[in-house]
Specification:
Rossmann fold, 392 residues, Jelly Rolls, 2 domains, alpha/beta, five-stranded parallel beta sheet, globular
Length: 392
């Protein structure tokens, strides 16, 4: 099995008044890293983590499911305890009795799609005393739809902004990341990913869409930015609004492709403009991540921007015999910076769930002045994937 199951508890289908489940983890304070899993039905769950140790100071990171970041290098002094809560969406491919999401073969081992809610406890010296898990049916859900630049990546050194944005929100809002590498707006609909989201959606929820990377490669009759792509985006809008949810568009992230003058080349044809056109026509908020990541990568420079992507010499990870030189997919630092771009776009767009930002979120992030990579501290997960995600 891909992970160590420290605790595996059978949890009955929960209602709003069900009793929470508590995992007492004080016996695990000396472990450097472990996974804790609980079997639960699909839905949103409030996870309350008690940090701290009586005998030592600690720094703890907690990620959920496929490496969604919730607690980042949280310090506790010797003898200090601290409690932090967050919401985790858990799901399986099942849509209803007769239909399932047609997930890819590579997804069958992803923690996002199994019948367990899994937490990864790690850090320079982790100290988690207790975890309490209870069902939440009230908080709004933000459904993330997209491709490899959005998806929760399970393994090092890959990462996307969709698994980092959770770091900055309180337990008053939940993120459900339905994105998958290689998907287009139309294939996302075709394999049932949108339908899965709609089956869980309620009034007051949100649906966020970032597509374009793979859509531009589709060829044939009816394809194109203002044809198949725009029609698919309109489907997202119509289906969400029928259920009382708010659609939000995000233009695609730039690729790391520089011209001789040190400027980012345009590689997405007219797909960002088509998304802007649909957003304006349908009256949907739009975050221009295409422009924000242009500024971000140009500010880093052609060489410096490699540190935001999966660029690593051979031998950087176990079994890695050749260099990584991927100019589309991000490493944790790059994904973290882009997540901040998305948050700033939500703030600028007046999207109301930004009221649930954690107080420590550093408002005013500017992609022209990214955080120095030296200040970013990421504790690697124990699992590495040497295969590039689908899409480019």
């Amino acid at each position: 099995m891909k992970r160590l199951l420290l605790s595996l508890l059978l949890l009955p289908a929960l209602g709003a008044s069900a009793q929470p489940i508590t995992l007492d983890l004080r016996d695990s304070l000396e472990r450097p890293c472990y996974y804790a899993s609980v079997r639960v039905p699909d839905g949103n769950y409030r996870v309350t983590v008690t940090l701290g140790a009586r005998k030592f100071a600690a720094s703890t990171t907690v990620r959920a499911e496929s490496r969604r970041l919730f607690i980042e290098n949280e310090p506790t002094r010797k003898g200090e305890t601290r409690t932090i809560s967050f919401l985790v969406n858990k799901r399986t491919p099942r849509i209803d009795e007769g239909e399932q999401v047609r997930i890819k073969e590579r997804e069958r081992t992803k923690l996002n799609w199994d019948d367990l809610l899994t937490l990864e406890v790690t850090g320079d010296r982790q100290a988690v005393q207790r975890i309490t898990i209870e069902r939440d049916t009230v908080a709004p859900t933000v459904f993330l739809c997209g491709n490899s630049t959005v998806v929760d990546q399970d393994d090092e050194p890959w990462a996307s902004w969709g698994q980092m944005i959770t770091r900055w929100f309180t337990d008053s809002v939940c993120f459900c990341n339905l994105a998958e590498s290689g998907e287009t707006a139309s294939t996302f609909i075709g394999v049932g990913r949108l339908k899965k989201g709609l089956s869980m959606m309620k009034p007051g929820d949100y649906i966020v869409m970032e597509f374009g990377h793979n859509d531009q490669k589709q060829r044939g009759p009816g394809m194109g930015a203002y044809y198949n792509f725009a029609t698919a985006l309109k489907t997202f809008v119509d289906e969400a609004r029928q259920r009382g949810a708010q659609p939000i568009f995000i233009t695609p992230t730039q690729r790391r492709s520089f011209d001789k003058e040190g400027r980012i080349r345009e590689t997405h044809a007219d797909y960002p403009e088509a998304m802007q056109w649909v957003a304006e026509r349908e009256g949907c908020p739009l975050i221009d991540l295409h422009q924000m990541t242009r500024v971000l990568f140009e500010s880093m420079g052609e060489e410096g921007s490699k540190r935001a992507f999966v660029h690593y010499p051979a031998g950087s990870y176990p079994g890695q015999t050749t260099a990584f030189a991927d100019n589309t997919h991000f490493n944790p630092y790059g994904a973290y910076e882009i997540a901040k771009c998305v948050v700033e776009g939500l703030i600028a767009g007046g999207i109301d769930f930004v009221r649930y930002l954690r107080p420590e979120y550093p408002r005013g992030y500017n992609p022209a002045r990214p955080d120095p990579v030296e200040t970013f501290h990421w504790v690697d997960s124990k699992h590495v994937d040497l295969v590039k995600p689908d899409g480019n």
